[in-house]
């Protein structure tokens, strides 16, 4: 391709409003010498909330408020929110940066986006006026900031986000409601509430794909209905973070995408429509949250600051959650698990069932350990018959950062060095004592999703200890440091391995007997996937090769933004009359110059042996609820 041609290539834009930043990637569609099409990064931009927008005083992109529960048995409720105007500001700033760097907006053919899942945005009746003000800009560069336009457009200015764990009682209410439906015993005052909840939890998982989770939008809305009914009344529309971002671009309310919508505990995962009973229960007869589902429809609306483009040529394709968008980027095949080590640690598996028919959540002994307590199912972002099994741990990168700061001089290089040393010392014990020394650590700086535990717990040879250390004079300080660095990574990845085989519809076929059922390869992504030693440990724990998009390909934008841009590419073509089917779409593969890490299977066997003890220790931790 000559230079002239390159300068006229179409661009596809992907945005990702994640927990800590807003990222944008522009992909260009190119052909190799054999005529194969693929996408390559043209440019990337990012606004870091903490550092680029310090006036919002966020830490890790969020505002954390600690409220002591009225019920002493319930401990502290963690209210975690993000300033909605900070997100508006971030969009304005990133568009400014793009203009400053002379980004060729006129070449943008289609745009899509992704965002952190489950968080919700509450629009006021002023929103329509703001949208009209945005539409009236008509391609001119606006002098007034988006903040000025949207400053009165919300009823709630601190949006609840996925890290919030303050809705335990609302989750229980939802489960009791479903558990009591059509049951005579629900009217019996003596009926065991926990039995009712267990039945409700099962029904909710069958209906929506997930049991009640505090971070899911349904319980968050219920909390607002209960605690601030006037605000709820004044709310004209509720968006997810993804549809909120899309609304700013299309200057009208954007629909919620089914894949992201299935992370709300409100959507019937099979029919992909709002469940009438759940929405009615939550709104108490109101009509909020009853948006319509409109998957992957293009919109032709003028976008502020993308005004140089002829609006009729710009397709804005429905925005989705960051996890479904990551699936779009990595093109997982059968046997692939996607592991995203972003702010959260997540594992995604592509399945063809959402587990409703196989009677999970057995009531027998150990049911609590085996129940789907940290996994759920989402609709697949493009395969209308597909689902995604999702495991999410809240204490991911930020917990590793805390350990890095405590034990590794605030340096990722040191962290990697200690991790390597930790792995080496377990493999080649230096003395008789350390040969029998097993260390396990749980580092839940924020209350974890499962187990619902807050605190740091270390065990040495099965016994609780305040700090690791064999009291061996030969040991230097570095041993304690590397023990903690290794312990946090091991326990995060072991927990992930254990949950990976809890789902229904997870294939039992596997290419290697030491690997978890149905997993023959891991596609790793997220900020921490740039750490080669973490990837090696991930590979060892799962016993499968780990592949990672190389960082120069990602150019720092991450795979959710890449997946969104890829969605823009696919639907941009479709909207232009190209009726390309899924297979052809898959063969137009993304240029993934990847790195591969191979497992040390002796290590894998050692981890498998540790699993029963790990589960026992995990269950022994003091839980914050029930
Ligand atoms: N070399 C590294 N080793 C481990 N973790 C890292 C490294 N570099 C960055 N990270 C982690 O990546 C995280 C950000 O990941 P990212 O995928 O961008 O998050 P999000 O999309 O949720 O905003 C940071 O919180 C940081 O802890
Ligand atoms: O809650 C979940 C998934 O259920 C999180 O994965 C959020 O979607 C936030 O994502 P990251 O910012 O960690 O990528």
From TrEMBL:
Keywords (A to Z) from UniProt: ATP-binding, Carbohydrate metabolism, Kinase, Nucleotide-binding, Transferase, Xylose metabolism
One cellular-component annotation, GO: cytosol
Keyword Cell inner membrane (UniProt): no
GO biological process: D-xylose metabolic process; xylulose metabolic process
Annotated signal sequence range: none
Enzyme class: transferase
Reaction equation(s) it catalyzes: D-xylulose + ATP = D-xylulose 5-phosphate + ADP + H(+)
GO MF term (any one): ATP binding
EC nos: 2.7.1.17
Nucleotide-binding keyword on record: yes
Source organism, top-level taxon: Eukaryota
InterPro entries per record: ATPase_NBD, D-XK_euk, FGGY_C
Residue ranges of domain Carbohydrate kinase FGGY C-terminal in the record: 339-568
Family, similarity comment: Belongs to the FGGY kinase family.
Function as written in the Swiss-Prot or TrEMBL entry: Highly specific D-xylulose kinase which participates in the catabolism of xylose. Xylose is a major component of hemicelluloses such as xylan. Most fungi utilize D-xylose via three enzymatic reactions, xylose reductase (XR), xylitol dehydrogenase (XDH), and xylulokinase, to form xylulose 5-phosphate, which enters pentose phosphate pathway.
Protein's name in the database: Xylulose kinase
